[in-house]
Amino acid sequence: MLKIHNSLTGVKEEFKPLSANEVRMYVCGMTNYDYIHVGHARMLTVFDLIQRYLRSVGYAVTYVRNVTDIDDKIIERAAANGENWADLARRFTTAMHEDCATLELQAPDLEPRATEYIGPIIAMTQTLIDKGYAYVAGNGDVMYSVRKFAAYGRLSGKKIDDLRAGSRVQVDDAKLDPLDFVLWKHAKPGEPSWVSPWGDGRPGWHIECSAMSTSLLGSYFDIHGGGEDLKFPHHENEIAQSCAACGTPFVHMWMHNGFVRVNDEKMSKSLGNFFTVREVLKTLRAPEVLRFFLLSSHYRGPINYSTAQLAQADETLLGLYRALKDAGASGPMDEQWLARFRGAMDDDFNTPEALAAMQGVARELNQAKASGNSSKAASAAATLRAMGAVLGVLQQDPDTYLKRSVGDKTMSDTDVEALLAARQAARAAKLFAESDRIREQLTAAGILLEDKAGGATQWRRA
RNA sequence: GGCUAGGUGGCAGAGUGGUCAUGCAGCGGCCUGCAAAGCCGCGUACAGCGGUUCGAUUCCGCUCCUAGCCUCCA
Questions:
Q1: Which of A42, A4, A36 is nearest to A297 (CA)?
Q2: By the 8 A CB rule, do A207 and A121 touch?
């Protein structure tokens, strides 16, 4: 039984799709005006994992992740660059796709872009006006009237009065209430705009997601995800818009992933403490290391980004690949370990516990290898691989993986093999001083050796 | 100030009312020409103070501390 923590109720709930065996899931994706950083990678990885797991247990998943391609930040950045805003958004959306592909994230089934949904956005805005939830403000913007929506604040646990008291929002003359938010912004000179019943303008951020999600998944769907920081006001506003416009409940389960931190502070553009996926990947043995790192703590908690943590993820992953090496991967799976693994994942996607199950399998695999029980080893390897497939790790050829280096290679494979042959000859002649000298030479070049029983030597890169 | 999450062994990180997390690092042993890897074994935890309980790291209360949201943000 799959249980998921529902941010709306604050507790883990048994997951039951609204429509049998079908899961409709929407995740707030990126506003693409720059390269994605590790914080974004966590959100993308978490929901990639979730949709993979839902599929692996047999659900027919429709995974929608949008792209915001019109926004203040895009316009500002484009202006600063002297670049066309649409070109800039396209350029960084392409870059995001490249990064996602490198990280082996499965592409969402649908990836709507805000500018493709101007029609539905206008229609929804009009409906909100017609139903009395929205009004045209004095400055030409269309605003949502928060006080008209009784359930406002339910998701974020905020009370409208508290929000007013602590509000840092400038009291704008155009708003009837400081908490009202914009659905449609009137065009300022030189800004991109679309024709609307309220004059030329562009959509507000919140309405985009309401329009895209309900257009593609219907007015009431199973899962809506995003970063913790979107809970308020973005998701709160989505609920207000969608419920009011559609007259139905909006989302069954809300899911929010925790932040990536750097020295106990949220990684963010504004703090300037961010690392782009591109720069981080250059320092890693494989993109898989970043995924493994992100999966090594629970998706709802914070995770601290540091090179030490990344190094540990690398080390742990290497150990798993070492276990897999020369073990084959066939035979019956170990149902006990599989059950523990599934139990962990069924418990609100508890990846650290799932990883612990994988370690247990790896230990048994190593035991089987040590005792020469190759069929048991192959069976354990198959189990481990299957678990890895669910998490999106451990799918590479072990030997190839182990020979990868962090950064540039300091010695070619052929040079390594040549020195290994010389060392082998020395060992055969019991010239251990010479063989140790060669080993040290290789170690200095970042090549680590393992002499196996029977005289063979395996190597890998540090 | 309001609201929401947390504070677990050297580090990372799950979890539980009473028996094991797991990984890295450390220590001892096996294996090895020596290593490495692996295996076996060992140790060190539950912020503080009260309360409930036969028994609490786990439940309740208070205190302290941290982070996040309350403005764009994954």
A1: A42
A2: yes
Tell me the CA–C1' distance in angstroms for A121 and B26. 61
A40 touches strand B (CB under 7 A): yes
ipTM of the complex: 0.95
Distance, in Å, from the CA atom of A201 to the CA atom of A193, rounded to the nearest integer, reads: 5
Beta strand pairing call for A3-6 and A11-14: antiparallel
A352 CA to B7 C1' distance (Å): 19
Q: Is the CB of A427 under 7 A from strand B?
A: yes
Backbone angles phi, psi at A437, to 5 degrees: -60, -45
Supply the pTM of this predicted model. Answer: 0.96
Does residue A24 reach within 7 angstroms of strand B, measured from its CB? no
Q: Which residue is nearest to nucleotide B3 (CA to C1')?
A: A158
Q: Which nucleotide is nearest to A296 (CA to C1')?
A: B13
Q: Nearest CA to A359 among A333, A395, A327, A324? A: A324
Give pLDDT tens digits along chain A (462 positions). Answer: 999 999 998 889 999 999 999 999 999 999 999 999 999 999 999 999 999 999 999 999 999 999 999 999 999 999 999 999 999 999 999 999 999 999 999 999 999 999 999 999 999 999 999 999 999 998 899 999 999 999 999 999 888 887 776 555 555 567 888 889 999 999 999 899 999 999 999 999 999 999 999 999 999 999 999 999 999 999 999 999 999 999 999 999 999 999 999 988 999 998 899 999 999 999 999 999 999 999 999 999 999 999 999 999 999 999 999 999 999 999 999 999 999 999 999 999 999 999 999 999 999 999 999 999 999 999 999 999 999 999 999 999 999 999 999 988 889 999 999 999 999 999 999 999 999 999 999 999 999 999 988 888 999 998
Cβ of residue A451 near strand B, that is under 7 Å? Answer: yes
| A312-CA/B45-C1' distance, Å | 21
CA distance A417 to A7: 55
The set of strand B positions with any atom below 7 Å of a protein CB reads 1-5, 11-15, 21-25, 31-40, 66-74
